[in-house]
Amino acid sequence: MVESGTESVKLTQCTLASSPFSFTGPLDRGCQELIIPACKNLGAYNNTLISVPAQKEMYSWFYGKDYAEDSAETDFPEIAQKMFEQYPKCQENIKKLFCGEYLPPCFPDEDPRLYSLCQPLCDQIATDCPGFFR
C-alpha cells in the first residue's frame, strides 16, 4: 500500500470497491420512514436513518413483542417511562433525546447526514435536571 496522501486513499477506495462484500451504512441508505409511534408522536421529525426492519427489531427489544402497525404501542417503553418519572421537569426533552439517540433524524429534502440533538437538548437537561447525566 502506498502511504502518501491521496495515493493511500485512492488505493483503499479501489480495494473496498473490488471487495466481494457490500457494506452500506445509514447515510448510503438515505431517509427511512419513522415507524415507532412514541417518537413519531413527538412531531419533531418523520424520517430516520434507521431502516424499517431495524426499527421493527428495536421495537421488539423495547416492548417485548413484534411490531404490528395497527396495534403498535404509542407510549414510550417501560424503561423510558421510569426515566421520565424520575425527571418530570425534563420529560419532554428526555423523550426527544431518547428518540434522537435510537432513531437519528433524517430530512428527505437534504442530503443524508448524521444529526445530533444532544448539544442544546443536553445543555437544557443538565440545567433543569442536573442529576440526569450522573
Structure overview:
The protein is mainly alpha-helical and 134 residues long. It contains 7 helices and 2 strands. The protein has helices spanning 5-17, 26-29, 37-40, 52-63, 78-86, 91-102, 118-128; strands spanning 32-33, 47-48. It has a two-stranded antiparallel ribbon. The protein is globular and about 35 Å long.
What attributes characterize this protein structure?
single chain, 134 residues, mainly alpha, two-stranded antiparallel ribbon, 2 strands, globular
Give a concise summary:
With 134 residues, the chain is mostly helical.
Question: What is the arithmetic mean of pLDDT?
Answer: 80
- Total helix count? 7
Q: Largest sheet at a glance?
A: 2 strands, antiparallel
Topology pattern, helix = H, strand = E? HHEHEHHHH
Distance between the termini: 46 Å
Query: Major sheet: order of its strands?
Result: 1-2
**Rg, Å, rounded:** 19 Å
General form: globular
Structural class: mainly alpha
Beta-strand content estimate: under 5%
Question: Level of helix content?
Answer: 40-55%
Low-confidence stretches: 6-19
Count of individual beta strands? 2
